[in-house]
Prior knowledge:
Blueprint: H1 19-29, E1 37-42, E2 48-53, E3 67-69, H2 72-83, H3 86-96, H4 98-121, H5 144-153, H6 159-168
Antiparallel strand pairs: 1-2, 2-3
Helix pairs in contact: 2-6, 3-4, 5-6
Amino acid sequence: xxxxxxxxxxxxxxxxxxxADAAVVAVQLGRPPRGRFDVAHRCRCGLPDVVRTxxxxxxxxxFPTLYYLxxxxxxxxxxxxxxxxxxxxxxxxxxxxxxxxxAYLAAHLDYLARRDAAARECGLEPLPPGxxxxxxxxxxxxxxxxxxxxxxxxxxxxxxxxEAAEAAGQWWSGGPCVPPPESVPVAGAD
Length: 190
């Protein structure tokens, strides 16, 4: 496993999120986020662009997507790559490149281990063995959003996530994707 340190450092309770960050994520998504989450990565503009979600929703429903890309510009860039067939090319390369296949399997195992650690950190039962990881890992590529989010949250963990993030371009170059936290109304604020 490339990233054996599975501890996630927090200044507050696990999956506790600053209300301003929560408001930004809701604006980015165009809806309130589901379940418990915290910021796993910040864009160069300082806003959240990846959240780490608890592996179960409050009602206990499994939520296997640990890292979720929230920045609309990053999501649009990933979508453009998907639209031109990047995923099919990556999947084809996995079938012939043993080293890439091994690195992608390691990314899959890293994701599963981090998701299980996140569940324990929240006092939740980990998802059952065999539950999918994300993005099609370990055998194919089916969602660049998930792979990019994994790589941003855990640099060096996902070779195809890194490749996709680099191919996506500088989505942050136009400045913040949504108004910065101080101008986003926070629920319950006066």
